[in-house]
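Much of our argument rests on the idea that a fold can be written as discrete symbols. Part of our work consisted of pairing the sequence of a single chain with a tokenised description of its backbone. We regard such an encoding as a compact summary of how the chain folds. The amino acid sequence and the backbone structure tokens for this protein are reproduced below.
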Amino acid sequence: MKLIGFGCSFTYGSELLDPNVAWDRHHENTQYREKHVWLGQLAERLNCNYLNLSEPACSNYAISHIFYNWLVTNDSRDCVVCVAWTSADRMSWWNDEWVHDGFIRNEQEARFKNTFKEWLTLSHSHCNIVTSQAKLFVNSVCKARQIPIIQFDALDNENNKNNYLNYHQRGLSMKQCLEDEQKRLQKTFLANGNHPNEAGHAYYVKLLAGWIRGREILDV
């Protein structure tokens, strides 16, 4: 069994930093980050392999496209699709790689700047529909091809009325869950930039793994 992960920075593992690396130099930190993010920790609990296809600032629109690209270029047998849906208030554009609006907002990316401004002015109100379409597409394909799916909201987004399969803590995002639990338990589950830290990912995986076992979602 192999977990295939899709999502934003909450699945990428932003702010998870190997203490032996001076800063997040990407490739030098990749193994540590992917091992300690929720996807890697869940794979360790389930004793299986994983592939992390998430990107920081990724939109739900891009998540559905990245899922499609994986689907048509890989054998999906013995795979479990794991999606941590992100905020609906995001958009992405393609130019040999994904350009996400979060980097444009922060002046880290010059490409699509004018398109981003037009999107904010003319199409931003369409965000919830785009997220609903992304969820419908991924869930419909998984159902049609009998690919197991595990999903949850990493960040608050469109909570539509569709009763999608295997949706963990529907209506409560990972971020909100960790904010609530760190207050209740008097622990620190979020890093300075509001991404889960190692303890936050571990705590959420504990909840996720218990839910998977209780629902008998996977044969583990």
In short: The domain at 2-215 is CATH 3.40.50 (Rossmann fold). The chain has one domain: 2-215. Residues 127-144 form the longest helix (18 residues).
